[in-house]
Amino acid sequence: GNSVTQMEGPVTLSEEAFLTINCTYTATGYPSLFWYVQYPGEGLQLLLKATKADDKGSNKGFEATYRKETTSFHLEKGSVQVSDSAVYFCALSDSGGTSYGKLTFGQGTILTVHP
Amino acid sequence: KAGVTQTPRYLIKTRGQQVTLSCSPISGHRSVSWYQQTPGQGLQFLFEYFSETQRNKGNFPGRFSGRQFSNSRSEMNVSTLELGDSALYLCASSTSAEETQYFGPGTRLLVL
């Protein structure tokens, strides 16, 4: 079946530091890949997505590139802010066959940014 | 456009009771998916509905059920609650199963 593995956290950074959160996946088909962010006490917000190999998703300074050869979708940001502190989830959607409407999530990475 | 709404936001129940959670999707979205989020198991898929039909179901016991109405609003029901059912229940909507899912704020259920 499908699976997503995220780097173990938590991750603690100083403001303006460079961020990388690793994500690798296993899928039987040709999945779409997503990063979602969850702030305390809230639901998930879509951060960015990529639907095919070599696509780059970007939003609010965050970027991730769909790498089929390494089955990866690593999240990066050049300069983090305190307001980026949240939990980040990598997810895939493989809507073929019996996977209708199902997102498979990684375990989440807690990011804390200090001033 | 209004986002996904879920009611109630918080709920406290006791073991053995049942509970019904509601989800109103973004206008025009016909697919609704439900997820359970717990610290131990993370985010797990419960089921997906499209045009009032359940098309996919996760690996949860039969105590967990759902339905979708003609206006695409969805409900999920958990019967005979157990302590382990304490979780954040999230619903997400999309135009179809193949499209991006947008999440609601969740319903936090505490079972005592």
List the helices and strands and how they pair.
The complex is a heterodimer of chains A (115) and B (112).
Chain A (H helix, E strand, L loop, with lengths): L2 E4 L4 E4 L4 E3 L1 E4 L5 E7 L5 E7 L5 E4 L2 E4 L9 E3 L8 E8 L9 E3 L3 E6 L1
Parallel strand pairs in A: 2-12
Antiparallel strand pairs in A: 1-4, 3-9, 5-6, 5-10, 7-8, 8-9, 10-11, 10-12
Chain B lengths: L4 E3 L2 E4 L5 E6 L6 E8 L3 E9 L2 E5 L6 E5 L5 E5 L8 E8 L7 E2 L3 E5 L1
Parallel strand pairs in B: 2-11
Antiparallel strand pairs in B: 1-3, 3-8, 4-5, 4-9, 5-6, 7-8, 9-10, 9-11
Descriptors:
heterodimer; A: 115 residues; mainly beta; 6-stranded mixed beta sheet; 12 strands; 50% strand; B: 112 residues; 7-stranded mixed beta sheet; 4-stranded antiparallel beta sheet; 11 strands; globular
What does this entry look like structurally?
The complex is a heterodimer of chains A (115) and B (112). With 115 residues, chain A is an all-beta fold. Chain A has strands at 3-6, 11-14, 19-21, 23-26, 32-38, 44-50, 56-59, 62-65, 75-77, 86-93, 103-105, 109-114. In chain A, the strands form three sheets. In chain A, strands 2, 5, 6, 10, 11 and 12 form a six-stranded mixed beta sheet that branches. Chain A has a four-stranded antiparallel beta sheet with strand order 3-9-8-7, with no helix packed on it. In chain A, strand 5 (32-38) and strand 6 form a beta hairpin. Chain A is globular, with a radius of gyration of 14 Å. Chain B is globular, with a radius of gyration of 13 Å. Chain B starts with a strand and ends with a strand. In chain B, the strands form two sheets. In chain B, strands 2, 4, 5, 6, 9, 10 and 11 form a seven-stranded mixed beta sheet that branches. Chain B has a four-stranded antiparallel beta sheet with strand order 1-3-8-7, with no helix packed on it. Chain B is built from no helices and eleven strands. Chain B is mainly β. The interface between A and B is medium-sized, with 23 and 27 residues.
